Amino acid sequence: MTVKGRRQEYVEATRAALLDSALELFTEKGFAQTSLDEVAAAARLTKGALYHHFAGKQALFEQVLATVNDRIAQTVVEAGAEVDEPWARLTRGLDAFLDACLDREYQRICLRQAPAVLGWERCRELEAGMMGLLDAMLRELAVAGRSRLQPSPLLTRVLFRMLSEAAMAIGEAEDPKAARVEVGVLVEELLHSVHGGNAGSLTSR
Amino acid sequence: MTVKGRRQEYVEATRAALLDSALELFTEKGFAQTSLDEVAAAARLTKGALYHHFAGKQALFEQVLATVNDRIAQTVVEAGAEVDEPWARLTRGLDAFLDACLDREYQRICLRQAPAVLGWERCRELEAGMMGLLDAMLRELAVAGRSRLQPSPLLTRVLFRMLSEAAMAIGEAEDPKAARVEVGVLVEELLHSVHGGNAGSLTSR
DNA sequence: TTGGCCAGATACTCTGAGTATGGAATATCC
DNA sequence: GGATATTCCATACTCAGAGTATCTGGCCAA
């Protein structure tokens, strides 16, 4: 681990600049509507640099996606780690997730465009981390004997997509804050009837 | 309303031929991977004819989509119309829907590609018919006092997307028939805990 | 018959992703 | 420390394919 030389710093800076421009443009104009020349120009570079660092347009998008995705996953994990009780962890995580949905970049990049650009299967591969989080929480709940339905990959998957849709609804609403609240209530009710039907309070043992 | 002349018959035939080729190619190769020249050639025509009948590639796709969508909606409506009791109508409709998901064209065109090609908002506009069906059934259920949650556009939307995801899961499975069964069970359980928690039997009054 | 019109064909433009190549700076080797 | 390889990025190109402009042959109405 030698200290980074000037050269390497420059290289990383151009790469980061490309990712930044791409994130900005993909978010604002959409993947199909932004050309690679634009991305490069916005970073004061040329397509040559871009193709040096990334395999192609899709690969560039994937990197951008991963960045945003990781950021959100991080906050969800942190929110969940604050508590121990399974149900509380789940609701905390969901809250953090829904809050993240107010983030324009997450909305546009991860929710709206990712499936269109990469296709559903590839997209699901990249979503595996998030799905894993949800799956783990549901299993915890099951172990604690707090769920009617036993967890299964299919259940997790279906619930995850439901959350994504709820998330998109938040982003599309004219008043996202209000929508956030409405969605929060609905999701809690849903989870409650699906999993916690036996408990009236979220904090019950 | 005069009888159709030869000429008009020919015109309708070429239009239909274009739609057929497009359906075939979009289904098999995907929207982005099929060129309009291919579509035209497959119908033994040229791009000129295609642009004469359709405003562009997206418009062509929309027509194809509408065709498939209407076909499925039709079967769902018919299945629901066979019974009167709200809960039975819902389960019948869902069964018909999930069966339809075994259809390759519905899978590829409506579920997989539509959002990518047209964008989510336009896609939802075209899904309005289907959503309306689900919404009506849920309201019926609520009127009959058979649901814990009161119906709302958001609830309908979220449940609808959940069904779409379940539908995609069916289509992707190595054994769609088996997946169909698994999904059927899960969906029934879910709806049961969300809406019919008070009833043990699907046919109870 | 004749002029207009419509379905469809032909030939074009133009954008943008991807490629080939060049060249300057830096790293590596002897 | 000079020669050589390698890295990073720029310039100049190809090529596919969506969309457009224009043409033509047949049908219908007057």
Describe this protein's structure.
Two copies of one chain form a homodimer. The first copy, chain A, has 205 residues and is mostly helical. Chain A folds into two domains: 1-54, Arc Repressor Mutant, subunit A (Orthogonal Bundle), CATH 1.10.10.60; 56-194, Orthogonal Bundle (Tetracycline Repressor, domain 2), CATH 1.10.357. Helices cover 76% and strands 0% of the residues of chain A. Chain A has nine helices and no strands. The first copy, chain A, has helices spanning 6-29, 36-42, 47-53, 57-81, 86-100, 104-118, 120-143, 153-172, 176-194. In chain A, helix 6 (104-118) packs across helix 8. Mean pLDDT of chain A is 91; it is low at 198-205. At the A-B interface, helix 6, helix 8 and helix 9 of A face helix 6, helix 8 and helix 9 of B. Chain B binds a DNA duplex (30 and 30 nucleotides) through residues 5-7, 10-11, 14, 35-37, 45-53, 56-57.
Features of this protein?
homodimer; 205 residues; mainly alpha; Arc Repressor Mutant, subunit A; Tetracycline Repressor, domain 2; 2 domains; disordered C terminus; DNA-binding; DNA binding (chains A, B)
Quick recap:
Chain A is an all-alpha fold.
CATH H-tier superfamily of the largest domain in chain A: Tetracycline Repressor, domain 2
- In angstroms, what is the radius of gyration of chain A? 20 Å
Give the topology string of chain A: H per helix, E per strand. Answer: HHHHHHHHH
- Named at the architecture level, the CATH assignment of the largest domain in chain A is Orthogonal Bundle
Largest interface: A-B, 32 and 31 residues
Shape category of chain A: elongated
Strand portion of chain A, in percent?
under 5%
Q: Please give the domain count of chain A.
A: 2
Helix content of chain A: over 70%
Extended strand count of chain A: 0
Oligomer type: homodimer
Organism (chains A, B): Streptomyces sporangiiformans
Keywords (chains A, B): DNA-binding, Transcription, Transcription regulation
GO molecular function (chains A, B): DNA binding
Protein name (chains A, B): TetR/AcrR family transcriptional regulator
